[in-house]
Design brief:
The chain has about 180 residues and is of the alpha+beta class. The protein is built from five helices and eight strands. The chain is elongated.
Length: about 180
C-alpha cells in the first residue's frame, strides 16, 4: 500500500509537500525523503511523534536509540511506517529543531492499494521551506577584555583571612 502524507507548517501558510511512500518503508526512509525535499542538513537530530486529533504528541520515533529503561521505544531504522500508521487522517509531528521546538504537521491524506511505488517520492510541493535551524545574529564580543574589565582584585589569600577569619574559626561557628 502507498501512503500519501501532506506536510505543512505554521511558519509559512503557503508551504505544502505531498510525500508518497510505501507503508513497508521505515521511518528512517521517510525522514530522509523529508530532509532531501527540504534541502536540510541530515546531521541534525529529528523525531517523529504520533499525534492525537488535536496534534498532542503521543508516541515518539527517534532518529537514534535513546535507550529504553524498560519503556517501549521506537527508532526510525527499526520501525516500519505501517507499524504505527494505519488509518487515513492519522496525524504526526516531525520535530526538526529541538532547540526552538519547531515541527512540521504531517497527516495521512490517502491510502492507495492500486499502485506500486519502488522509491518514495515528493508528489507535490508548494512554497518555501522554513530554515532548518533558527539563528540569531549574535554580536561578537572581545571576551577577554570584557572579562578583565569586570574582574576585581580581591588581594591575596592573607587578606581573605583578615576579612573572614581562619577556616577553623568558620567551622567552629557551626556552618
Amino acid at each position: 500500500m502507498i501512503y500519501i502524507f501532506k506536510i505543512t507548517t505554521n511558519e509559512y501558510p503557503g508551504f505544502i509537500r505531498l510525500i508518497e511512500i510505501d507503508q513497508e518503508n521505515t521511518f528512517s526512509i521517510f525522514h530522509s525523503v523529508i530532509q532531501q525535499s527540504l534541502d536540510f542538513d541530515s546531521d541534525q537530530l529529528a523525531s517523529f511523534f504520533i499525534a492525537d486529533e488535536s496534534w498532542a504528541k503521543r508516541i515518539e520515533v527517534t532518529l537514534i536509540d535513546m535507550g529504553s529503561n524498560g519503556i517501549p521505544h521506537y527508532t526510525m531504522k527499526k520501525t516500519k511506517i505501517k507499524d504505527l500508521i494505519k488509518t487515513k487522517g492519522q496525524k504526526l509531528l516531525y520535530t526538526f529543531d529541538f532547540l526552538n521546538d519547531r515541527s512540521f504537521y504531517i497527516e495521512l491524506t490517502e491510502i492507495s492499494m492500486e499502485r506500486i511505488l519502488n522509491e518514495p517520492q515528493v508528489a507535490y510541493q508548494l512554497g518555501k521551506a522554513p530554515k532548518q535551524i533558527l539563528t540569531e545574529d549574535v554580536e561578537l564580543i572581545d571576551a577577554p577584555d570584557r572579562f578583565f574589565d569586570s574582574y576585581h582584585d580581591y588581594g591575596d589569600l592573607d587578606d581573605y583571612t583578615e576579612i573572614f577569619g581562619e577556616m577553623d574559626d568558620l567551622l567552629e561557628g557551626g556552618y
